[in-house]
Amino acid sequence: MHGKRNPTTQCVGIEAPLGHRRLTGLNGLWFSGQTWGWLVVATLGLVSAAWGQVSPQQMEEGKKVYETTCMVCHQPTGMGIPGVYPPLAGGDFVAGGNRRAISIVLNGLQGAVTVKGVPYNGVMQAWKAVLTDDKIAAVLTYERNSFGNKASPVTPEQVKKVRDELANRTTPFTPAEIEQIPNEDVKP
Ligand code: HEC
Fold this sequence. Notes:
Layout: H1 2-50, H2 56-74, H3 92-95, H4 98-107, E1 109-115, E2 118-124, H5 133-144, H6 156-165, H7 175-180
Antiparallel strand pairs: 1-2
Helix pairs in contact: 2-5, 4-6, 5-6
The chain binds heme C.
């Protein structure tokens, strides 16, 4: 009995530190595994943006920005109020090349414009001092892919590029000026 018990005790004594070390090793693996997981998610997000696919996360973020910042005028349906607030559904400035939409949201829009056959002559404020590049990218991606619209997503990098180009401009755009902006996506 004695002879049998001793080796068992010794065995446990040796196994415990080993087991502990092994567990620590596994923990380390698990953490780096999780980090890699996030990196993969982030990379897939960037790649899908580059491929022109719309990420669900950006749509969700954009919906939040829309509901808190834009919906009061452009309405839950994106249809606006005829003659007062233009619709975002089916509007050329919203769903064409994203350079025009980004410019409008950064600096605002003022003056006579006809959207889907209805004339408007109002003022929309600039949002550049209110919303970050991330938020503008998200809300525009949302608008360009909601209300029946289907257009390329907008990345924060594209917004930043236009923001830098417009750094010295303080006045809103007129619709005529927007027509002069190439109807194309901002190049990466
Ligand atoms: C206080 C009301 C108001 C709010 C809030 C508002 N807009 Fe506007 N928006 C307008 C008006 C008015 C116009 C048209 C200006 C004109 O007549 O020249 C406009 C025009 C636009 C246009 C061009 C529309 C087109 O079809 O030609 C876009 C794009 C747009 N808004 C996006 C946004 C986004 C994005 C937000 C939220 C960040 C927002 N708006 C918040 C009032 C508003």
